Amino acid sequence: MQTAKKNAKKNLRAVILNMHQYTAGKSIEEIADKYNLDPSRILKLSSNENVLGSSLKAKIAATLALEKVNIYPDVVSDELSKEIKKTHGLKNIEVVVGNGMDHIFEMLARLFLNNGDETIISIPTFSCYELVTLWAGAKPRLIPLLKNYQMDIGKILSLINKKTKMIFICSPNNPTGNLMKTEDIKKILDSTDKIVFLDEAYAEFAGKSLVKWIEKYPNLIIGRTFSKIYGLAGYRVGYAFIHKNLANYYLNSITPFVVSRPGQAAALAALDDHDFFEKTIRMVEEGKNFYYKELSKANIKHLKSDANFITLDTYPQKASLLANELLERGIIVRECSTFGKGGEYLLRISIGKREHNVKVLEVLRERSIRD
Amino acid sequence: MQTAKKNAKKNLRAVILNMHQYTAGKSIEEIADKYNLDPSRILKLSSNENVLGSSLKAKIAATLALEKVNIYPDVVSDELSKEIKKTHGLKNIEVVVGNGMDHIFEMLARLFLNNGDETIISIPTFSCYELVTLWAGAKPRLIPLLKNYQMDIGKILSLINKKTKMIFICSPNNPTGNLMKTEDIKKILDSTDKIVFLDEAYAEFAGKSLVKWIEKYPNLIIGRTFSKIYGLAGYRVGYAFIHKNLANYYLNSITPFVVSRPGQAAALAALDDHDFFEKTIRMVEEGKNFYYKELSKANIKHLKSDANFITLDTYPQKASLLANELLERGIIVRECSTFGKGGEYLLRISIGKREHNVKVLEVLRERSIRD
Fold first, then answer.
1. % of chain A beyond a pLDDT of 90
2. N or C: which terminus of chain A has fewer CB atoms within 10 Å of its end residue's CB?
3. What span, in angstroms and rounded, lies between the C-alpha atoms of B298 and B348?
4. In the CATH hierarchy, which fold is given to the domain comprising B56-271?
5. Is A66 in Cβ contact with B63 (below 8 Å)?
């Protein structure tokens, strides 16, 4: 059966042959090894995690949940989804919970994308929208953001056609940090009943959300996460607001038990820890103001951010050069070439505690003088 | 924009319109509510969880991991996958880790199933093979097991055609509990290079595995889980052995960060807790022997099990009748109608501690006398 042995690969779908592994922010261990640095002195500011850690209440809830960790978790995270729904109290809008927000729009691709369908994505942005499109055998139409990092709304509207099934919008956009113009989002929703997925992973930092709009636009689905403001990236809990007309289709089409039992417990408790939430908001706000002031003083080009990170515009130099210099000094930041065209000139730095930001700015200033 | 509002549903794929929510084993809370019972007195023997709980080492590791739960977990569970690989030491065979084993064969459907492709599944069995097939737009060919609960190998071989991409085999089979004949699995592998997914979720209880075969048959992929013998169902950690020629395609095509940080830590520690492993094996072995003896004495038809559950054959009565009688007494077991044709006459009971098994047998005996 030599033939049989050789041909396992021939079963692969064509689209799979061209995939590359997801590029994650680099880990502390990776950088410590590569540059021979002390791991405890490395600053990880590459994945927009919460540098304050996570809510003590959440950790306690997770620890208590270990008592029953031999038991499967709730099949669709029912209690958590009800609690989130309660905090917002919105009629006709349901909440679904996923293994990180990525998992939710991956499931939405299952609901909506057939082979040959199209999605519309403004770039540079989070690369997973493109990935879920490709995995589904659909075609992502990638539209560069305008010079002001806003959507090219004319181009987007002109591209919507019979094959279009989903339009992805990230607001505040990762990695540019800015909110997309409300009027542009409205234009899209007013002109089409295609599914609009709005990624609001960073909405808490912007203090602005379009969740209420789902009552008027049932084709709008809004994703959120516990990974950023709630400091639970290690637990993988995301959620989405979805119109009640679509919610059951979603629940009927997902893999069961995707969120761990301690993860559900931690998220539930985190929802309730307003102090931790406010403390994070304050730290990010102060950090951004500090960056704005210092970067302007040093004449370093940067973008205004509505998220928990700040993005430098390194044009005409590739951002990877600056990223490497920071890496060599034990500061992990994110050069954004994997976010699509334009990203190669963007350097994304998560807002840290005061002392972290000071350290980053020292290196940036030093370099800008040298240039 | 009234039209736009009404038509969000029209974006759904046709296959999604016919889906139903996954039927999980009933939870203690659900049954306590329904029958007005004290939750602490309810016995949950419906999901083949480990009634001994989980390894203390695993719980400690999970608690320690909370320190960094604000940080994303390793993107592909690298350390855990290397450690599992080491415990088996198999050349050319890689280990991939998923959010429960379900997640792994869901990803395999992404790798191998196009619209219109076919899979072959022997029923009654775990319903998720059929679900991932349908989600992919492919067609499951469901072949009833023979009277001895073995595969209808002639039928299976005759059904393999150009459209066939995956053959699912569950061994020990859920919910019948028996190992599939090795010679039948060999016949399939010798006759085809289609992907054969072998679900060995219960292999540790059988003390038998075909992992080594992957060296000879690169089209064989074998799934395993931390949910059963390791008692970590609440954490959702599964893994699979896969030939190195396919492993990179897998890693290139999956969602990142699917297993939580504490989940990875717990699984790593559980691997190392041989005492807990052996204690579980012993409890299940003793429990099964007790059941065999007592069921035979009481003339209650049952199947021989290589897993951590025992299955009763309730024909010609529907298993749901007996399941309900047990439920009313606070014992949750699983009637298997959702496992496909034939399952409606099977009642699956997880092996419990001695006192649990005694309690179940009391009800069964009482009922069999009444009949």
1. 89
2. C
3. 18
4. Aspartate Aminotransferase; domain 2 (3.40.640)
5. yes
pLDDT cut 90: percent of chain B above it: 89
Lowest average pLDDT, out of A230-239, B8-17, B280-289, goes to B8-17
Mean pLDDT across chain A:
95
DSSP category for residue A27? P
In order, the DSSP letters of A230-243 are T--TTT--EEEEEE
Indicate whether this complex's ipTM tops 0.90: yes
Beta-carbon separation of B243 and A54 below 8 A: no
List CB contacts of B365: < 8 A, sequence separation 6 or more: B294, B298
A64 three-class SS: helix
CATH entry, B23-51+274-370, from 1.10.600.10, 3.40.50.2300, 3.90.1150.10, 3.65.10.10: 3.90.1150.10
CB-nearest partner of A112 from B13, B62, B73: B13
According to the model, what pLDDT value does residue B269 have? 98
Task: Specify the pLDDT at position A1.
Answer: 43
B8 to chain A nearest CA, in Å? 5
Contact criterion met (CB < 8 Å) for A236 and B260:
yes
Give per-residue pLDDT as tens, A286-332.
999 999 999 999 999 999 999 999 999 999 999 999 999 999 999 99
Bridge pairing between strands A309-313 and A346-350: antiparallel
Q: State the residue for tokens 């190992």.
A: B179
| Spatial CA neighbour of A222 closest among A80, A76, A93, A79 | A93
pLDDT of residue B220: 98
Contact flag A234-B70 (C-beta cutoff 8 Å): yes
The whole-angstrom distance between A109's CA and the closest CA on chain B is: 10
pLDDT in tens, B239-268: 999 999 999 999 999 989 999 999 999 999
Minimal C-alpha gap between A249 and chain B (Å): 7
Inter-chain contacts counted by CB atoms under 8 A, chains A and B: 289
Whole-angstrom distance, CA of residue A309 vs CA of residue A284: 8
Nearby residues of A38 by Cβ (< 8 Å), 6 or more positions away: A32, A330
Tally DSSP H helices, then E strands, for chain B. Answer: 15, 12
Report the distance separating Cα B319 and Cα A182, nearest Å.
Answer: 56
Three-state secondary structure string covering B256-272: CCCCCHHHHHHHHHHHC
CB-based contact B123:B114 (threshold 8 Å) = no
Q: Inter-chain contact A24–B195, Cβ cutoff 8 Å?
A: no
